[in-house]
Amino acid sequence: MSITLIIVIITCLVSITAFNRPGDIDKLSFWPYQMHRSNEYYRFLTSGLVHRDFIHLFFNMITLFFMGDAVEQFFTVMLGSKWYYPLMYVLGLVLPDMFNFFKHKNNSHWSSIGASGAVSAVVFSCVLFAPWQTIYVFIIPIWFILYAVLFLIYSVYMSRRGGDGIDHTAHFYGALLGLIFPIVINPQVLPFFLNRLLNP
């Protein structure tokens, strides 16, 4: 069983269970105010296991499912170990939330949920390795690189609109992580990406 499938199964089980238990979502959500005052830093990780609704969960997990296995394989070949993949995923849950932690640690009304930062990191890592690979979205074929751009446009729009309890800014910071992490581990990833980009 792939690491991606394990992550998807665990996330779906926790999220679906929590849909009928609002108290569980409150306990697991990313809530900087509570984290800062009670040292509940576990929320950096647990917030990625719960989602607002089935649509939020579906889009995050379908994206992870289709792109995660590819990134897992690419990491094994290009970075030398598949274990860099779960490491990046965990960093994708934590690092993109740092900005909002310091921004909202004194705001008791702000919180968010979802694996958006980690999923965004996976999407953009996949783009590095296979920008012209095709993914099917509602039976429509679309290149990874185009999917990634549309993913970010959606994130920016939703971040500006706000009001849904989802940290859409995490998409942007997760994307940066997904681009930078593989290159830091193996700088040869950058010329590899440029060669793939210029030679569809």
Descriptive terms for the model:
200 residues, mainly alpha, 70% helix
Structural features, described:
- This protein is mainly alpha-helical.
- The chain is globular and about 50 Å long.
- It is built from ten helices and two strands.
- The longest helix is centred in the first third of the chain and has 26 residues.
- The chain has a two-stranded antiparallel sheet.
Layout of helices and strands:
Layout: H1 3-19, H2 22-28, H3 32-38, H4 43-46, H5 54-79, H6 84-104, H7 116-129, E1 134-137, E2 140-143, H8 144-161, H9 169-185, H10 189-198
Antiparallel strand pairs: 1-2
Q: Largest beta sheet: what is the strand line-up?
A: 1-2
Order of helices and strands: HHHHHHHEEHHH
Total strand segments:
2
Distance between the termini: 31 Å
Rg from Cα: 17 Å
Beta percentage is under 5%
How much helicity do the residues have?
Answer: over 70%
Mean pLDDT across all amino acids: 89
Shape: globular
Give the biggest beta sheet: 2 strands, antiparallel
Low-pLDDT stretches are: none
Multimeric status of the protein: single chain
Tally of alpha and pi helices: 10
Give the structural class.
Answer: mainly alpha
In brief:
The protein has 10 helices and 2 strands; from the N terminus they run H-H-H-H-H-H-H-E-E-H-H-H. It has 200 residues and is mostly helical.
